[in-house]
Amino acid sequence: MSSAVISTSAAQGRFFVFDTESPPEVCPPFAGNARKPAEAQPASSVRAAQSAISSQKSTILANVAPASRLSLRPLPEMISSGIAAIDSLAGGLPRGCLTEICGPASSGRTTILLAALAAATQRGEVCAVVDAEDALDPQSAVAAGIELDRLLWVRCAENPPQSPSTEKAKSKARSRSQPHDEHSLEQLLRAADLLLESGGFGLIALDLCDLPPQTARRIPLTTWFRFRRAVEHTPTVLLVFERQSIAGSCSSLLIKLGAAETEPAAEERKKPTHARLFTGLEITAEVLRSRIERKPAASVVATFVGKTAWAG
To answer: Domain with 253 in it: what CATH number?
Structure first.
C-alpha cells in the first residue's frame, strides 16, 4: 500500500495520510454462498418454477366459484299477517327476520298488531308484546280474536308493586336521574333481549309507537343488528311498530302506513260532527324496503279498512 504525506500551513506540524488505493473489503462474500444470476440458472429450474406457479394459480382459480354458481340463501317462510291486503302486498310476514311497520298516529298500526297476534295465536303459537307505554287494550285484543292464554304482555311503563312511601321515593329519584320515556325504552330493550334469547315464541312485537321519535332514535344501530342476528335462523317473527323507521338496513321488510282521505257518506255529512259515529278507518300501506325477494321494492300501495269492535 502506498501513501502520500501532505503538510499545509493551516495545520502546522500535523500530517494527513491519504491512501491512494481503495481499502480492501472487510467481509468479502463467501464463494460458497454466492447465488448465480437468473441468466446462469439452468433452464430446467426455470421451467420447474414456472410450472409450480401455474399449478398454484390453477388451484386457486379452481376453488373460486363464479357468481353465477353461488348458492342462494333460501327464502324465509312467510306467514299471514291476518290482513289480506298486507299479505298480497308484501307476501306476509317473514320468519327469522326483523320487520318494521311505521306510520303516524291513526294510521292502522294497532290494527296490524292485533291482526297479526290473532292469526298467530289461532295457529297455536305463543306470542309476546313488549309494550313501551302500556298502550295495549285487553278488551280490544279479545275482540280482535287474540287468545290471551297464548300471549305474554310485557308492560314496560308499569312499575312493580311497592309500598306507597317506597314507590313515591323511587319515582322522585327516577324523575331526577332518568326521564320516563328513557326508562321505558331501557326496559323494552332488556325485555326484548331476554325474549329473543329464550326462544320458543312464534311472534314478538315491540311497540314503540307512543315513544317520542327523538327517544326511539337513541337506540344504537348495533342493538338492531344484535336483534336481527338473534332472530335469524329461528321461526320467530320480530315486529317493530314505530312512528318512523329507526332500524335502518337491519330490517328485512319495511312497511309504511297512512290514513286515506275519504269523504263521509251523504247522510253522515248532514249530521253535525259530534253526532257522527266512528266505525272504521281506511288505511294505505306501502312497502319501502324488502330484502326477501332480492329485487327493489315496487311502488305499490294497498288499501284496507280497519273497523271498530262495535261496527263488526
So the answer is: 3.40.50.300
